[in-house]
Design goal:
about 290 residues; elongated; CBS_dom_sf; CBS-domain; CBS_dom; Histidine-containing Protein, Chain: A; 11 helices; alpha/beta; CBS domain-containing protein; 3 domains
């Protein structure tokens, strides 16, 4: 990630940080948000490295390498948007009246819905923010003073429309079903969107993916991490029951009596596991 992106991200974080301390009930959400942003930053860093390499030398030709035949190597599973998206997706036609759009958002308990044409192509997204401008002008059509005139002008830009197509935000930000979850997470974070329409190669709506869906896909829960750590311990220890593994919010604690010869390599391997943010060494080396 470039220095500019880093400083810009810090400014955004400061703007979105609450002015009060996090409450105990919000600690889990705070940790999940931190890990989510870490995953997004990793994607941005990888992209920046690739772009720098292309700028410096373009594609480099490598000498042919002779590979001896052997067992096939299983590629790591890459989650795609199609694996986490929600179907069917709620949408509204472009000619749906304002009040019906508002009722749809309330009924479906969502903050935004895609707007589609007669062929189900996504032409925009209408959100609570889009509807709020019209509702505000309907409630208070006349404001006075310089500030009032400025606000009225901005509100009227949104309030002139009466249908989803005239109130929506466009062009829409969409993702493809075959896109990587990590890339979709970057798109959602960069555009500050809670929900992304998923479209096929013709731009037709096939589903929707939310930030929560992406977050759950990017971050495994502690039980999954613990299972992988315990499996790894079994490769180093004859009796895995002699080692106690606990995981809390991505932090792994390893406790027990272990051969001092295997401890450094074991701890290093645990640190390499995806979504492990810390390793606490509580091992008694013998």
């Amino acid at each position: 990630m470039s220095d500019f992106e880093h400083s810009s991200g810090e400014r955004d974080a400061r703007r979105t940080t609450p002015g009060r301390p996090w409450t105990p009930a919000e600690e889990q959400r705070k940790d999940a948000l931190r890990r989510y942003l870490g995953a997004v930053a990793a994607v941005a860093s990888a992209r920046s490295a690739e772009e720098s390499e292309r700028a410096l030398g373009g594609e480099r030709s490598e000498p042919p390498v002779t590979v001896s035949p052997g067992p096939p190597v299983q590629e790591p599973t890459v989650l795609r948007v199609r694996d986490v998206m929600r179907v069917p997706a709620v949408s509204v036609p472009g000619d749906m009246p304002f009040l019906d759009v508002a009722h749809t958002l309330a009924r479906e308990q969502v903050s935004a819905v895609p707007v589609v044409d007669a062929d189900d192509h996504v032409i925009g997204v209408v959100s609570e923010s889009d509807l709020l401008a019209k509702a505000a002008v309907m409630a208070e059509p006349h404001r006075h003073g310089p500030v009032g005139r400025l606000r009225r002008h901005r509100l009227y830009e949104k309030s002139h429309g009466d249908t989803a197509a005239t109130l929506m935000t466009f062009p829409p930000v969409t993702v493809h079903p075959a896109e990587r979850v990590a890339d979709a997470a970057w798109t959602a974070a960069h555009a500050r969107l809670k929900r992304l329409p998923v479209t096929d190669y013709r731009g037709r709506l096939v589903g929707v993916v939310s930030r929560r869906d992406l977050l759950r896909a990017l971050i495994r829960d502690d039980a999954d991490i613990r299972a992988e750590v315990e499996s790894l311990v079994g490769r180093y220890v004859p009796d895995p029951r002699a080692v106690e593994v606990t995981v809390e919010n991505g932090a792994v604690t390893i406790k027990g009596r272990l051969d001092k010869a295997v401890v450094p390599e074991l701890l290093a391997s645990v640190r390499e596991i995806d979504d492990v943010i810390d390793v606490v060494d509580d091992v008694e080396a013998v």
